[in-house]
From TrEMBL:
This is glutamine--fructose-6-phosphate transaminase (isomerizing). It catalyses: D-fructose 6-phosphate + L-glutamine = D-glucosamine 6-phosphate + L-glutamate. Keywords: Aminotransferase, Glutamine amidotransferase, Repeat, Transferase. NCBIfam families: PRK00331.1. Pfam families: GATase_6 (PF13522), SIS (PF01380). Residues 304-446, 528-682 form the SIS domain. GO terms for molecular function: glutamine-fructose-6-phosphate transaminase (isomerizing) activity. The keyword Transferase applies. Residues 2-230 form the Glutamine amidotransferase type-2 domain. The keyword Lyase does not apply.
Length: 692
């Protein structure tokens, strides 16, 4: 959501702050601002503007002549912010940073102050005034108010303020009398980069300071950091107990990690947009995901980089995710259940927090998030962990909150993803889920899969210190693999089935590159874009593994091109959505020739749309060489009733969703560009959703 950046050191502060904000541009925002301390005059100066960072930069260049900013080269520290609105209209007044009434305090915050209304009312009764509708301004006013209780003690004021505010935050504060930055973290991400000569950077994302240092420390909840030019200290904080001892030395030793991407990955290069760049980076990104995890010669799965403890009697796997990650989890559910018969549930993390879900003590809960900072997913994972459930994470960002909470899982290794709409992270999530399925297959002979969901259940949101133990001799409805499993659910020996999928994964980057370089595919996409750009709505349909692909295609269409799009299981179309079909309604079908079970049924669904005048756009894989005559006839019918057909190479069914998704990404991207929409900054969206 919002982006925070702060700097203290010997570089030109204002230039460094603006550069950091530009690196955070991808997060989505409606305003930007900076706050700096003048060490000579002991004054704080703020510059902020609604709109893009470039507007702020132009404003500073035009207005700083003769002002305090004209001497900014003498400054040594400052804080900066890009705002994604949670409270207050997108105006300059509501943009961070915020002054206290006496202009001695300056505040930036990523998150939300949940008790801001109550606190604002209290401060107004004390005679303080407010210039914005923003919930964060009250923190600056509180700091001023509490300074009367703690005169000449900014740290105590800061700690006392944290004891009063409620919500989620990454917070940065300046006081005019000091060359220090005070920072605190609760739920929202915050990290520190330490460069040469002890210069220090604070940010919501290490992307902002990657060009200066590759060393980063991610803060945990309830940690306070005090930064000066020569040192920094970090303390655990609890409202009832105050500050604990300085742990900065331990953090440097044990929590410092390398930023796992190069500066080159943050540059556009020859691409007009990050989204297009990241679409074309997908073959290499997927290769990174499986490298070191499957054997180099198609013959084995090393799986050495997977550190996930499986419950001894596995009841089910529960995926927690939001948005694109949720659709990836649905593909994972299909693959795992099909290949292992282990039950899988996919839960929207945002709904999971408020619904009375049940857990079994033999469940495995896996949180999926590109950033590893998604607020709803993080909170749902914490609830599961507090219940004593085995948890894991599947994230891209090393050292992120979800990775640290889970303590085990898999990193995607797909590199930095800047575009708001996820592309290569989605492909890598699916690839990682395929690898996780192989990991499960490897362990099928040693784990038991229980179908019993009655023992040891507790409501998710009810307090429960422990799970009850099953009673001796209690009848069980468990279904167990007995004797030990030697073949998969398709009757193929386990090792052979693992080799089959490993081989398909290793071949996948070449097939992905074929889709991206195929001139026929690009020509068809041109025609589809010309047809679609003025449409108001679209429907995406799929069956089996094609259904979550349809959902992801619809999401890309609506978030990037602003065309209302909905994804449905193809079999559900006649239970309501078919009422929308006429000659103006585009209908995208995801048709897998590799899935003969659903091929006939989805062709029937296509006939239902065709007879009602719907314009069918089909994405399908090529005809398998061993297809029987019936399958060949079905595929021929698919092409004849489609207005447009995009063919992608045939692969193992597990890998096909990645190939199907690439044309859908390109179509959404191209429509956005044709409509004059910046696909890297779709309206109202943020890359990392760090508030609930």
């Amino acid at each position: 959501m919002c982006g925070i950046f702060a700097y203290i050191g010997g570089r030109p502060v204002l230039i460094t702050l603006i550069t950091g904000l530009k690196r955070l541009d991808y997060r989505g925002y409606d305003g930007a601002g900076v706050g700096l301390v003048n060490p000579q005059t002991k004054e704080i100066v703020i510059a902020k503007q609604a709109g893009a960072v470039s507007i702020l930069e132009q404003y500073i260049q035009a207005s700083c002549r003769g002002s305090i900013l004209d001497k900014s080269s003498d400054f040594t520290l400052g804080i900066a912010h890009t705002r994604w609105p949670t409270m207050g209209a997108p105006t300059t007044q509501n943009t961070h940073p915020f002054f206290s009434n006496d202009k001695q305090w300056c505040v930036c915050l990523n998150g939300i102050v949940e008790n801001s209304s109550k606190l604002t009312e209290q401060m107004m009764k004390e005679g303080y005034t407010f210039e914005s509708e923003n919930d964060v301004e009250v923190i600056a006013v509180l700091l001023e108010h509490l300074s009367k209780t703690y005169p000449d003690d900014p740290l105590s004021c800061f700690v006392a303020t944290l004891s009063v505010i409620e919500g989620a935050y990454a917070l940065c504060v300046l006081h005019a009398s000091e060359e220090r930055i005070y920072a605190a973290k609760l739920s929202s991400p915050l990290c520190i980069g330490i460069g040469d000569n002890e210069e220090k950077f604070l940010s919501s994302d290490p992307i902002a300071f990657r060009e200066y240092t590759e060393n980063v420390i991610h803060f945990d909840d309830n940690e306070i950091c005090i930064i000066s030019k020569d040192s920094f200290s970090v303390h655990k904080f609890r409202p009832s107990e105050g500050l604990e001892k300085d742990i900065s030395h331990e953090l440097r030793l044990h929590r410092t990690v390398k930023i796992p991407f190069s500066l080159d990955e943050l540059e556009l290069g020859n691409y007009p947009h990050y989204m297009l760049k990241e679409i074309y980076e997908q073959p290499v990104a997927v290769q990174r995901t499986y490298s070191g995890r499957i054997g180099p010669t198609h013959k084995s799965a090393n799986l050495l980089d997977i550190k996930i403890t499986l419950p001894p009697q596995l009841n089910s796997i529960v995926f927690l995710a939001c948005g694109t990650s949720y659709y990836a989890s649905q593909i994972g559910k299909y693959i795992i259940e099909r290949e292992t018969h282990i039950p899988v549930r996919c839960e929207y993390a945002s709904e999971f927090l408020t619904s009375a879900r049940l857990f079994n003590r033999q469940d495995l809960v896996i949180a999926i998030s590109q950033s590893g900072e998604t607020a709803d997913t993080r909170e749902a994972l914490l609830i599961a962990k507090r219940k004593g459930i085995e948890v894991a994470g599947l994230v891209n960002v090393v050292g992120s909150q979800i990775a640290r909470i889970a303590g085990q899982g898999m990193y995607l290794h797909c590199g930095a993803e800047i575009g708001v709409a996820s592309t290569k992270a989605f492909a890598c999530q699916v690839a990682a889920l395929i690898i996780f399925m192989l990991y499960l297959k490897k362990h099928l002979s040693s784990i038991r899969v229980s179908g019993d969901i009655t023992p040891a259940h507790t409501p998710l949101l009810e307090p429960s210190p422990s799970f009850p133990s099953p009673q001796p001799n209690q009848p069980s409805s468990s279904r167990l693999f007995d004797p030990p499993v030697t073949k998969d659910v398709n009757g193929q020996p386990l090792e052979e089935s693992i080799v089959r999928v490993c081989s398909a994964l290793r071949d996948l980057p070449v097939l992905m590159q074929h889709v991206l370089s195929n001139t026929t595919t690009m020509s068809t996409i041109d025609e589809i874009v010309a047809f679609m750009k003025d449409r108001k709505s679209a429907i995406f349909l799929g069956r089996g593994i094609g259904y979550p692909v349809a959902l992801e295609g619809a999401l890309k269409m609506k978030e990037i091109s602003y065309i209302h799009a909905e994804g449905y299981p193809a079999g559900e179309v006649k239970h309501g959505p078919i009422a929308l079909i006429d000659e103006d309604m585009p209908v995208f079908f995801i048709v897998s020739a590799s899935d003969s079970v659903v091929l006939t049924k989805i062709v029937n669904n296509m006939e239902e749309i065709s007879t009602r005048g719907g314009k069918i756009i089909t994405v399908t894989d090529c005809e398998p060489t061993n297809s029987d005559e019936k399958v060949q006839a079905q595929l021929k019918r698919v092409r004849s009733i489609s207005a447009y057909t995009i063919s992608v190479p045939c692969s193992d069914l597990c890998c096909s969703p990645i190939l199907f998704t690439i044309p859908l990404q390109l179509i959404a991207y191209r429509i956005a560009v044709e409509k004059g929409i910046n696909p890297d900054r779709p309206r109202n969206l943020a890359k990392s959703v760090t508030v609930e």
